[in-house]
Design goal:
Blueprint: H1 9-41, E1 43-44, E2 47-48, H2 64-74, H3 82-91, E3 94-99, H4 105-119, E4 130-135, H5 138-151, E5 160-164, E6 167-169, E7 176-180, H6 181-190, E8 197-202, H7 210-225, E9 230-235, H8 241-246, E10 252-255
């Protein structure tokens, strides 16, 4: 007679129940983790980030830093105006944007313009046009480019770069470039119709530098020959009516800002 090596029925049943409970616990834990990740991602434009956790440029998963910065981006005053801005951008060639300091316009508006540029159709073999955003100071162009590269989870100098005098931190893959107004003015010498760009943004227009004023004159002439070029003039003062009048009553979008604490150190 062969002795059975099977376990008692009640012991087998108890182990089966324990295994089922463990599986249920793991499934619930995974479901909760995915749900928390989706909730933390929030929405991006008309689609949810949770639906695509892959960076469209690098084809890799977004990093933890990306989601942390994304939460901060959503708290910027400019964020609630995204749909309004995109609507104006699609319907008009020139947009005048007035926003106080601290609204986030310098970092967020160009990224939304990148979304617009990527949505445009391209012919076979045609290079996709990018976005140019001018800054009146070299340090601003460099620091803002680094910040935006971090927010887009990219390496500076690749898809996001900057161009200042004696230094060009960009590549053939660059689709968003921050540059001094003087550098964009220099580019118009070799590319008078700005064929490389789908959108050009003139930031800090209220400072009225010589290069900025010349660029506005060039933009107005280029707009007649390139109706597909989007021009965004951004100012931090309420006296932006003159820009609107100059561009034939272009639509004006006013965005509130916020202040930040400033510490003063005496030496």
């Amino acid at each position: 007679m062969t002795r059975s090596s099977s376990e008692p029925r009640n012991l087998r049943k108890r182990r089966f129940d324990d295994s089922s409970e463990a599986d249920d616990h793991n499934n619930k834990k995974t479901s909760t983790t995915n749900r928390n990740r989706n909730e933390s991602c929030g929405s991006y434009g008309n689609s949810r980030i949770s639906e695509t956790t892959i960076n469209r440029f690098t084809k890799q998963n977004y990093s933890h830093q990306y989601y942390e910065l994304y939460k901060k981006r959503r708290q910027l005053p400019v964020w609630e105006y995204k749909e309004a801005f995109m609507s104006i951008l699609h319907k008009n060639q020139v947009t005048v944007l007035v926003s106080e300091t601290g609204s986030g316009k310098t970092t967020q508006i160009p990224q939304w313009c990148v979304d617009f540029a990527l949505s445009l159709p391209t012919s076979n073999g045609q290079k996709r046009r990018g976005v140019a955003c001018t800054q009146s100071r070299r340090v601003a162009a460099m620091s803002v480019a680094q910040r935006v590269a971090n927010e887009m989870d990219l390496l500076l100098g690749q898809e996001v770069g900057y161009s200042i005098r004696f230094e060009n931190c960009s590549s053939s893959k660059t689709i968003l470039k921050y540059m001094t107004d003087g550098m964009l003015l220099r580019e118009t010498m070799s590319d008078p119709l700005l064929e490389s760009y789908a959108c050009v943004l003139l930031d800090e227009a209220h400072e009225r530098t010589l290069a900025t004023d010349i660029l506005m004159g060039l933009f107005k002439e280029v707009a007649k020959q390139r109706p597909d070029l989007k021009i965004i003039v951004m100012s931090a003062t309420l006296d932006a009516g003159k820009f609107r009048d100059y561009f034939d009553k272009a639509p004006l979008l006013a965005i509130s800002g916020r202040t930040f604490p400033v510490d003063i150190f005496y030496t």
